[in-house]
Amino acid sequence: MNFKKIIFSILIASMGIGLSAQNNTSSPYSGFGIGELEMSSGGRNTGMGQTGIALRSNLFMNTANPASLTAIDPQSFLFDMGVNFEYTKLESRSKSVNVTDGNLSWLQLGFPISKKLFGAISLNPKSSVGYNIFTLKSVDGLAAKYQALYEGTGGLSEAGGMLAWKLSNNISLGAKAGYIWGNVAQTLEQSIVVSSTGYTLIQEDNIQYAGSYFNLGTQLSIPFSSKSSFVLGSVVGLSSRLNSETSTTITKSYSSSTEIMASDVESSSSAKLPIDFGIGVSFLYGPKWVATADYKRSDWENATLNISSDKLSTNNSYRVGFEFAPKNDPKSFKQSARYRMGYRFDTGYLKMYNNQIHEQAITFGAGIPIRKDRSFANFSVELGMRGTKASNLVEEKFVKLNCSFNLWDRWFTKRQID
User: Is residue 50 a part of any domain in this protein?
Assistant: First the structure.
């Protein structure tokens, strides 16, 4: 692989980033909080139940823990770009609908800076908003009901830079700092009839978000025998604040005229994101077997968002993953491929009518070598569900396909001339 190919890949990825304004979800739950949270740690992670706190590899990017960067080989360069496609069945007790979504998942670059210092940059969606909800509402004092349509699009993105320090052969420290920004458009359209006179009232809110964040990570490798070892990992995400600017326009439409009741009314506020921490453990048996497990807690109930605090709940995440590589032999396709599976369960950060909106999924994946060097195409599928039919809520069953290209190249090599 040469520099021109990498630049071309980045340009293609940049075109995909331009699609980030499109919906990556059709979940009605994305209308609350900051939307549906995205998972984007790397192509290997998605096939292993979205684990990564204790994963290390010199072949695959892993941004779930910045300390993992110290596994990158000297004089090497890693580039990872992922996309996804999702099919979802939304089902309540009375109705069901099928929807499809897709978008860029991540763009990641990793490289050594010195023998003990390593760096990376990443760009990925933080959350997605995409919903269309029709309901009937009543006016106080009137028996008749009127139609109301809630629509929302947009989401948040994040760009981050990472540094990792190899304190010793077995201990690594890492840090990640970044910037979160995005736009969410929300519309409420109400068709009202009063005294035989009908009109439509439309409120459009355009919300701009911006803020920064800072995370820390550690990994400790413990040799167990000549063929096996343990890796212990931990991550901490410090509480961060998002500033928001809301521009509101309200219009009132009759059969033959439209009246602007308010235009570009601006307001400012801020949202406090939660502190989170996680721990993980991995067991490696030679180059063939990897088993890993993560636990992560995010204290969303202490966050301050644009919804009432009783709708927020602490999110506990439990994840396990496995990887099997028959042999590390680049001459054999079957032996050099990696096969993965995993499971994850998230209690969710939203609580609706005393029902916590949990999510769970099983994952299957494979890493397929695409050249005789150390580059891989990673494919995975997630089969999962989110939400519940209780209390007239919506249950979502989804199939999510992930595809990424993890490209390896050797850089910073001195040319020798005889």
Answer: yes
